[in-house]
Amino acid sequence: QVEFVESGGGLVQPGGSLRLSCAASGFAFSTSDMSWVRQAPEKPRDWVATVYSGGNAIYANEVKGRFTISRDNAKNMVYLQMNNLKSEATGVYYCNIAGKSYWGQGTQVTVSS
Description:
Strand order of the largest sheet: 2-10-9-4-5-6
Number of strands: 10
Radius of gyration: 13 Å
Oligomer: single chain
Shape: globular
Number of helices: 0
Order of helices and strands: EEEEEEEEEE
Structural class: mainly beta
Strand content: over 45%
Helix content: under 10%
């Protein structure tokens, strides 16, 4: 079955960096577009970024220039490098097949001084 295991979250001060990782399994990863989605406390999930199967990427406006999504098809991994973090980035981050609703446990990111 489709499975995602996210990791790499933590507590970081504003302006800091984190790198999230997602191990994917149970589907044709190399031909799937992959996304990161964030769920802030008491809010619905918000799309953050998508990396297409060919490697191109798109980002939500609020993270452009600070976040980088990437993938390793040989390892079935998706990454999200987050730099210059702001408090608004706080939330649980999930990776997923773009447009689908298979959810792992997510990884908590807290940006606070």
